[in-house]
Prior knowledge:
Keywords: ATP-binding, Hydrolase, Nucleotide-binding. Helix content is 38%, strand content 14%.
Amino acid sequence: MEMKRRHKGFLKPADDDDYLTSAEAQPIDRKIGEERAGFGEERIITYNFNHSSTIEQQRQRLPIFKYRTHILYLLEKYSVLIIIGETGSGKSTQIPQFLLESGWAGDNKCICVTQPRKMAAVSLAMRVADEKGVTLGEEVGYSVRFEECCSEKLTKIKFVTDGLIIREMMSDPLLKQYSIIMIDEAHERSLNTDIVIGLLKKIQRKRPELKLIVSSATIDAELMMNFFNTNETDDPTKNTVAALTVEGRMYPVDIFYQLDPVPNYLDAMVETVIKIHTHEKPGDVLAFVTGQEEVEKVVKELKSRSSTMTDDDKPFLKIIPLYAGLPFKDQMKAFERPTTVPEMQRSNMAGVILQLKALGIDNVLKFNFLSSPSVDAMLCGLELLYALEALDDNCHLTDPIGQQMAEFPLNPCFSKMLIMSGRFGCSKEAVAICSMTQIQNVFIMPHNKKMKMEKMKRKFSVAQGDHLTLLNVFRAFINSNKNPRWCKENYLNYKGLMRAVELEQRLINYLRRFKIPLESCEDDPERIIRCLAAGLFCNTAKYHPSGVYRTIRDDHCLSIHPTSVLYTELPADYVVFNEVVHSGGDKEFMRDVTVVKLEFLTDVAKHYFDYGSDGPAAKRSKYDF
């Protein structure tokens, strides 16, 4: 269906003045009398009992310190060491230093520590460099997606994301640069962590001298021991795996006092809980009030506030009341331990399969996963890669498309989109759009300013959808000379946009390497949308008279996300989207949505669709594995 466009072509923003903004939470400022970043204008003071201790004294106070000798002994005796230590015990910062001090980085080798998140890898590297009194990037460094701060010759301790070490295996299959690898935060069971664990088990068969440490706050030690143990006899002295539990924790407790009284402490409490949830690391918050009535009031207000949150990158806020008058069953909800479902068992497997294929693992169905994904999930991943022309009829990587897709540090759909962008003459626009989709929040919504933010957002909106709107924002940011004040005025994430600019340059380097021409379509939206369809055709949804969209691939019911520029528009017949996100309830939403014509889909993916009386439906391909 034809849709009314808000703008002719793309927005050509004027040179506006800009403001400084910070989209990411800042570290807590522990200086007396200063404000806490991200927590409004309240003035606070803090006390930290560690402030007068030397770094060495602080290290020795950590619970992990008394296990130093035992850890080093177990590493000499066993191939794999599983360490279970509560948060705050010092595992992540101290164990790498124990290893360095005892000579594990000799013979031009390096100690590697993997983290599931980029921010953790960077901040831990900074902390360890600070403790050792060295310059970050020399003896201690980090390497994460699109960013590196280390030296091939000087670095002895390197913190990396688990996704990055998988990419390192493509050029160094046996990871010969490392003498020991520590897999930290293994209890999170992220997709990449589970893949790394499976790959390292294979590498140890070729490199038995490589030592592994699996570190976690809470993990099924028996599962890990059974997975890594190569002892096939009943003699426990021949085990190749050991487990160590580190007792005790050490939290430096900071006490924050408000210097000014608040008119309503319940409102202040709700506001504080929401800001902790949105600005701090994932975790739990205990809020104490005087009785049942206040508990119920705070719970009601928190539920109301959390229902309007649009930041889907934050975990769902689970609000649990606790007071003596509650039934025992309801009281016990506050003490339930969350169970971690391995991401491997709830994720799209196409990216995993692509990486494994690039590493030379032909039969991915027989790969030794710590927790095996379902056969259906693997087959769906294979079907997607086949549809994207990354795999041939024998399930081998195609040349060049499949091999190039495996090298891009992106979702396979975006990789295919960039590879195809040269054919549509819009590679510059495609790179900008891909870069913008990699940042978490483009727009910032300050408290009580939702209407103003929406008004500013409409200034950039294009009726064809979110991808062209993101391109508008990117261009406007560049035209503003990347001015932070302008971002503040327009409720835009300055740090995120700067990150997108960096990503754009890195992705352009990939295009140059693959000899994909860098061209602009000169504001021809049709060519950009055709290019989007070439990568996202598997994520096509058709509007249904019931008021929802249904995916072509599996007839799944979806709605347009409230943050989309299409949310308030008349529904289009067909759309493509980046991803599906879940709300706190049963509803599922499409994020980053663009209107697409049926003819675009048939032009770029004839091989994917069958046609019937109801229009196109995805073919179910058959494979001979």
